[in-house]
Amino acid sequence: MDAPEDWPRFAVTVDLVVLTVRDGALHVLLVRRGEDPWRGAWALPGGFVRPVEDLHEAAARELAEETGVHQAAGHLEQLGSYGAPDRDPRMRVVSVAHLVLAPDLPEPTAGTDAAAAAWVPVDRVAGDELAFDHARILADGVERARAKLEYSPLAAAFCAERFTVAELRAVYEAVWGRALDPRNFHRKVTSAPGLLVDTGERRTEGRGRPAAVYRRGPATTIAPPLSRD
Amino acid sequence: MDAPEDWPRFAVTVDLVVLTVRDGALHVLLVRRGEDPWRGAWALPGGFVRPVEDLHEAAARELAEETGVHQAAGHLEQLGSYGAPDRDPRMRVVSVAHLVLAPDLPEPTAGTDAAAAAWVPVDRVAGDELAFDHARILADGVERARAKLEYSPLAAAFCAERFTVAELRAVYEAVWGRALDPRNFHRKVTSAPGLLVDTGERRTEGRGRPAAVYRRGPATTIAPPLSRD
DNA sequence: GCGTCTTATCGTCGGTGTGACGAGAAAACA
DNA sequence: TGTTTTCTCGTCACACCGACGATAAGACGC
Questions:
Q1: Would strands B25-32 and B163-164 be described as parallel, antiparallel, or unpaired?
Q2: In this structure, CATH architecture of domain A152-216
Q3: Nucleotide nearest to A182 (CA to C1')
Q4: How many angstroms is C1' of D6 away from CA of B193?
Q5: Peptide bond preceding A89 in cis form (omega within 30 of 0)
Q6: Model pLDDT for residues A152-180, shown as the tens digit of each residue
Q7: What residue stretches are annotated with the Nudix hydrolase domain (chains A, B) (predicted)?
Q8: A11-149: CATH, from 3.40.50.300, 3.40.50.2300, 3.90.79.10, 2.60.40.10
Q9: B134 in helix, strand or coil?
Q10: What gap in Å lies between CA A115 and CA A113, rounded to an integer?
């Protein structure tokens, strides 16, 4: 099977698990499907990969097009591919899922394809109300995010460019669903080499002593890792 | 773009990074291409996904067909997808790469498609002698394997069903390319709950005191992780 | 202005895991 | 029988961790 007519034809899509932290809870960006199948159901944003673009490009493009989110501020990585033969009743589709971690954003803008888009707390998404196999993709994405916070500086992708230790801690608490000791957390992240860069700036957030404002440092891993036990 | 004629058609393949430990070194299974493009170059084994099979099934099938390796003994997981528009000059191909960790096997059996197959030490694979983007896929697979040994019981996938602590340590040393202290390694793996099950059996390997023989335990993670520093 | 509250930041302390390494156990080999 | 080799168990100093006390520095109510 080597002639161009011989290989099975697939449609290839990218689906996006876009996560953010709002009001102390992890949220995922969902769109409501306007077409069959699964018309009216919530789904992950996504779309077809174009004939001439890389998978990563396609994901970034769909992210901007369909959700108005620009990758620059956050983090985009490939999550995995899903290609069960019957996952889409119309045709054979392989979806390359991507994970996006974004700072809290004003409001989801419904894109061209989607009837509506909304941030939904991940623990309020019932598995059976998502289209296709998106419940599994979402679960894999959330688990990936939870695991990566342990040993990577990725939590900062949920924050604005300048942030305080408390804001960073709030991200961990939201993603892990668990309260962390502010003193130990402060010690760990400030002592991890290259993780945070002190801007010298201070910021007072309502009550309490003003907090130092940091930027992301050059570190690519957190050693030793934080523990989510 | 919703009619079946509208979406771009892709070929979807699975490529396999099959790793094993031989003679104290990490080896990868390569096949020599018998057809253009890249005729005569080494490549990762792989092939087209069939119209009705899941990606994981396709990887397991290609593994058995093309290399004679049966997954049962080892470990098979998805590594990631590669879909640069120009990665195959013939057509638009998205490859879903999989990572296989297998015990040392007698000899690679050249499969139907491949002119030849061979175990090659990974540190002797020159990047520019691999077909397509397989050098990058291989690098990603090796890095995934190295990282996973830290916190998962996956090293046992490189061993036979029953193995000694020294054999397990040899796997770590081969994959990480670094000598480990036998005493500290022994302490860590035997004290990690659920990692090893003592079979009661002993085995004497040439000289030295006979070693206890273990099977894999039910643990899915190693806590605390081993460190490869 | 002055206490009070709240949050940020720094320190302390006991427990635990770690790497470096010593020492004994149990085999093969000369 | 001694030597060598490898496996296995201990020891010890050190780093780190979680729990938590103490202090710093702002806002707030009066």
A1: unpaired
A2: Orthogonal Bundle (1.10)
A3: C8
A4: 25
A5: no
A6: 999 999 999 999 999 999 999 999 999 99
A7: 7-144
A8: 3.90.79.10
A9: helix
A10: 7
